[in-house]
Structure formats: structure tokens, C-alpha cells
Amino acid sequence: MKILAIGDIVGKIGLQKLKETLPGVVKENDIDFIIVNGENAAEGMGITENMYRDILRLNVNVVTMGNHTWAKKEIFNFINDKQIIRPANYPDNNPGRGYDIYECKGKRIGVINLIGRTYMSILSENPFLKAKEIIKRIRNETDIIVVDFHAEATAERIALGYYLDGEATIVFGTHTHVQTADEEILDKGTAYITDIGMTGPKKSVIGMDVDVSIKRFETALPERYKIAGGKAKFNSCMFEIDDKTNQVFKITRINA
């Protein structure tokens, strides 16, 4: 089993890069299951229904979200679709759900989306306790459990990796848009990486226009962010899982 996790899609340029790159990556690496974080697809803030449908047409299995889940009101039209999940530790009265179970090649794959609390200013439950609660609930119904932890703080993501070591099959981070080089298989078998990066404009400040970003830092004056142009990059991470043990034996960062 090969699972591909793709970093945050940023803007139309990121979606176009996904369309151009993903089919070749899937074919070249014989990918079985695909997870894409789509919460920045609509020019950095949320996702539209057309974008969501475009992503699914690429045979993506799950679209995860994050702090911009509710940025586009039309999401309420499709948030209950099985192939999209929002952070599970959002309040329980929010629409949609934070995890689901999918079948692929005879395996039952549980995918959980969580949001961090450090520096995020989002009303949410404790992601550590929520993760354990969900894993306990679905452990006997799944062969593989994958966690997308959409968080700002590196320390919070690393801590969750160790916290879920031996409980989850894979824990990967999203949100900060910079791919980290710390992929590893932890002591009890959980595959971990702090951030899988982004799919969006290459010459940018985490996807945003360079000049606008510099002006904000230089002057501290309000300046509306805009998505950068130019060439785009594709950040992802492939996890290869032993079909007998259901544990990851190899992690490969795939970028284009």
C-alpha cells in the first residue's frame, strides 16, 4: 500500500500545478491512496465547490481542511460529503465531520483531521485528547490510521507525533507551507513528518506575493495579501506500508 499526502493547495496556481503533476506522480510511483489538504485552495482562504470537484476528478480519496475551513460559505453545500473532512476538534455542533474510514485494496483506512491550538486563535478542543478518543473508537474498524495535524507550532506537531506513536500509522503536519526534512519512523512504528509543505507558487512567502509580504513586515502597516504568480511547486510525501503488518517501512518526499 502506498499513501501519498500532498501539501496545502494554495490558490488557482496550486490547483493547476496539482492537475499537471499528480497524474504523473501516481503513475510513476504506483500510488494507491491520496490525501490532499485543500483549505487554502480559494486564493489562500478556504475552498470552493468547483475546486473541490476538480480535486476529486484527479482520483483524490480525501480532502482535509484546517483553520480556513469556513472561509467560503458554499462549503456548507458539500461539507457533509464523505470525501472531505474538517478538523475533528472543532466544536461538535459544527457541520461535517473530523474523520472517516475509507476502503482501498482490501484495507480500511481511517483518516483524521486535527487543528492545533498554539498560535491558531481557533475555538477547538484539545487535539491530543481528541485524537486518542477517535483512535480508540475506530481502532477495531481500521487497518491503517492517518492523521493530518494542521498546526502552527513545530513543537505541538512533534509532541503529537510522539503522543500517537504506536497508535496511528502515520502522523503528518500541514499549515506552515514549508516542507521539513525530519521524516522518520518513530520507536513504536508511527511514520512522522512535521510538515509536508505546499503546492503553490514557488517564488513566494508561503504562497503569498513577496513584495506585499515584505511590506507588511517592513512597515507593520496593513496590506492585503495576494497569491504570488510565476512557477509553482508540488510538495508531497509518500508512505509505503507493509501489507502484512500495516506499518510504514519507507517514507519518501516527492516534489516537483
Key descriptive features of the protein:
single chain, 256 residues, alpha/beta, Purple Acid Phosphatase, chain A, domain 2, 6-stranded mixed beta sheet, 5 helices
H and E order: EEHEHEEEEHEHEEEEHEEE
CATH superfamily grouping: Metallo-dependent phosphatases
Summed over residues and divided by their number, the pLDDT gives a mean of 96
For the termini, the CA-CA separation is: 22 Å
Q: Sheet with the most strands?
A: 6 strands, mixed
CATH class: Alpha Beta
What proportion of the residues is helical, as a percent range?
A: 10-25%
As an assembly, this protein is single chain
Beta percentage is: 25-35%
Total count of helical runs of at least 4 residues:
5
- Largest sheet, spatial ordering of strands: 5-4-3-1-14-15
CATH topology: Purple Acid Phosphatase, chain A, domain 2
Structural class: alpha/beta
Radius of gyration: 17 Å
Task: Please outline what is shown here.
The chain has 256 residues and is an alpha/beta fold. The chain contains five helices and 15 strands. Helix 3 (127-138) links the parallel strand 7 (107-115) and strand 8.
